[in-house]
Amino acid sequence: MSTVGWVKQGDAGGAGRPSRTERPGGPAGDGQPVVADGMMPLWAVSLDWELRRGRQVILNGQIRDRWWFADRPASFREVVAGLLEARGAEVVGWWDPVGGLVFPLDGHAERFDELREGRSSERARTPGGAATPGGASIPDGASIPGGASGTGTPADAAGARPPQGRGDGEGPSDGAPDATARARRGDERDRGRERLLAPRQSGRPRSFEDVVATVHRLVALPDAAVAFVFEDVDHHLPPGHPESHLGYLRLRAAMTDAVTPRSAAGPAPHARNAVLCAVGDVGRLPGWFHLEDPRVAALHIGPPDPSERRLWLTWLLRTFNGAHESSRADLEALVGATDGMLGWDIESLARTSWMRNAPLGKPDKLLELHRLNVSVDPWTQLDRETVAGAAGVLGSRVVGQSVAVNAVASALQSAFVGVDFGSSGTARPRGAFFFVGPTGVGKTELAKAVAELMFGDQSAYARFDMSEYQQEHAAERLAGAPPGYIGHEQGGELTRRVQERPFSVLLFDEIEKAHPKVLDKFLQILEDGRLTDGRGQTAYFSQCLIIFTSNTGADQVRSLLEERDQLSYPRLEAHFTRAVEEKFRQIGRPEIYGRLKPGVVVFDMLRPEHVARIADRLLGELAESVRERHRVELVPDTDTLYPWITERMSDPGHQAYGGRQIRNELELVRSAVVGHLLANRPEPGSRIRVGVGADGRPWVTADGAGPFAGEGSVRS
Description:
This protein is α/β, with parallel strands linked by helices. The chain has a 6-stranded mixed β-sheet, sandwiched between helices. The chain has a 5-stranded parallel β-sheet with strand order 12-13-16-11-17. A 4-stranded mixed β-sheet has the order 18-19-20-21.
């Protein structure tokens, strides 16, 4: 198996290049796995094998990335052209919608013109065994330019002419240079007249149709080994356009009609003349183009694997900041941390190490700075006093949930200090919580409060309603559809959000309603802190707070309240913890619960002493709304409202629904205020008072007027 030798900066002749013990393109008869070495990437080895199997190939994926060929960095075009030439191709042509037909290798354009115009070449291979680098076959008895036949001598093949005499029947005269010069000038005049009278040859094909027609004709002839690559053909022939179908049919005919050239060398089996396609996404091609013919195969080019990344990092080692102080362990740590990165990304990583002053010896910090690409880290910009007092700030927003507030505040303080167990280039999220408890007790409100405290605004908070992910296929909405499916180019809702705003609070509401396949997506996020979408782009969650909420077990709270007048928090906590664990076992995902167990936070039920505070906040919001829309001051009569709402919420049926039930009860008060505003049209700047009568019905009064009974209410 190939390995990469560790070369220290001071070693003579090392130059930071890897040592190789075998070539991947060599025989693999022993069945051993093929790993990368400096000759070519692994996908190029697969391409070579597919060609030798007699197939034409559609290369798709990372065709814009940087690779290597023959121990040096190379573009995708250089790798493919070099491989095809190494396989014996006399002509390697490359077509794309911008540049048309070009020839990336020296001398191949001239050879293409010879073959296109039907001219022979001195490099041709003769059937009798006289082979030349060109590889074109010449039939027996045919003339080689200069008068040589297929069985002539080397001098004949060189185009030598018999000596010219003076025309009087005598032999050649050794001392007559003037006669030789005259003969040479006569030959030149003859050739000039021939060129002048010969029919003009058309130029190289320019349009796509002409190029495909010429390629079809050349690859179907066994006279020479040729290869052509059509890049970005999906942009030139958009699927769905009627005129595009004919273009794809012609291109596929050229691919399938190609033959094996007679000049094929090397061990069998030999490849056919190659007609390849290179596209970024095979899903943009018509399905029938490559699925209906077994002679056409699709080969996906993904990001470099660990052995390939090790090659890149070894080549680029000297370009990293702090490379002279690094060890092999630092390199291996970076190999694992760069999983999913492309060749260009790895090269830009070396530039980042200097731009952000992040040495190679600190791969975690280097990767974090490179991925986030921001100068200001909100976690480090927080005020120390604000973080220390986070429990008080959050507690003012979420009433009666001291246990949950303290747990979240502790996690925020840990994230701010930056102390954790171990280190890894693929950092886990800053915090992961599982909020469970009765409905309407502040789980969502706490997530919003955290976002505003840490990042300055609630826009850093993103909520995903997991009731929309009840179907198995809904898992693709989070990370994006795979190539070839509708919506692939849009990416996933979750990955796109994190890529746009890496500093976020992510709330997955009512997680118990999601399909188990959807839950599998969170395993990688919780363990490695990353998720790759269908486009191959990776989103990193190392700067996120992740919160799951669940109402599992909430349907049994009412029965627990009916059993006893007061339900203690320890009993409530044990009930919900047991319900959550049982839920994950039922769906067959206990490993997810194992990762979330340290972050499980049970919210307390709404206690009577907290009802008035929540009601006061809701009444304040109602008064602010009246002030903004009508410039009228609304004054709640707390002497009547607080006892009334507290009594209403003492019912077990109401208490089980938490703060939402308080809002539902106050709807009667809001309706009374609306009715008063419609019926009386109070003047701007006036004051109205709202309260509840002894019969439990709301009333509204204005200064100097009697009480107004709201809809369905009577004031006696």
